[in-house]
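Fold it.
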Amino acid sequence: MALFALHCYLKKKKNKTTLVEETEAKHVDENMRVKENIVKGPHGQPESVMLSVEEDLHVDDDIIRKKKELEAQRNMHASSSGYSQS
């Protein structure tokens, strides 16, 4: 009985194939900060303007994997090719 169960398990496993599908996803996050400082002169009038720019860039790469089990191609062809002749 155990040998029969082992035989059935191996036969079933042999007929299935595994397909791995990979999808690559990229996430880009970009931030920019601009600061403006006005420097006043001795009489309260604007003398100069200072600008400072800060850039922040983050890039994340993700790979998503999915496994699919498919029946063997020969089983699909054998069942679809059975047609009757008239």
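The two ends are 45 Å apart (CA to CA).
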